[in-house]
Amino acid sequence: MIGLFISKQFLAFLLTGGTAAAVNFSARIFYNQWLDFSSAVICAYLTGMITAFLLAKLFVFKDSRQSIHRSAVFFVLVNGVAILQTWAISMALAYYLLPSLGVTLFVPEISHAVGVAFPVFTSYIGHKRWSFR
User: Fold this and answer.
1) Contact (Cβ atoms closer than 8 angstroms) between residue 26 and residue 109
2) Share of the chain residues as helix, strand and coil, in percent rounded to the nearest 5
3) pLDDT digits over 97-122, tens only?
4) Helices 68-92/107-117 angle, 10° precision
5) Which of 71, 59, 63, 115 is nearest to 92 (CA)?
6) Whole-model pTM?
């Protein structure tokens, strides 16, 4: 299983995923001007997910023979799991863990950054096996 994560493809996934995560993170700050934190996290995730799909198809899994429609359906399913992970971790950190540790500065940013980073490995496996076979 470790060998799965030691490849040029995984490195490309990290780079494109990092770009999509930056879009996600920035979009949350943008959306947070009009939405509460929880809603902004969800909307930002969707923005990042569209970015991630396009970048993954173009640069990571370009040899996939699966139709765009089928890839998109599985991409959404895999990301459905990831968005739950992102949301749960972001909420737990923002409303419980960081306040209990006395952290008061950048709580939404720290919480969301950790939440976005967490599903990297589960998403890669899901996209490699189902989204872009």
Assistant:
1) no
2) 80, 0, 20
3) 999 999 999 999 999 889 988 888 88
4) 140
5) 115
6) 0.75
Element (H, E) at 40: helix 37-55
Reduce the secondary structure of 16-32 to three states and give it as a string: HHHHHHHHHHHHHHHHC
Total residue length of the chain: 133
DSSP per-residue codes, 60-123: ISTT--S-HHHHHHHHHHHHHHHHHHHHHHHHHIIIIIHHHTT--SSHHHHHHHHHHHTTHHHH
Give the integer Cα–Cα distance in Å for 115 and 13: 18
Question: Cβ distance 45 to 24 under 8 Å?
Answer: yes
Residue 74 and residue 130 in contact, taking contact as beta carbons nearer than 8 Å: yes
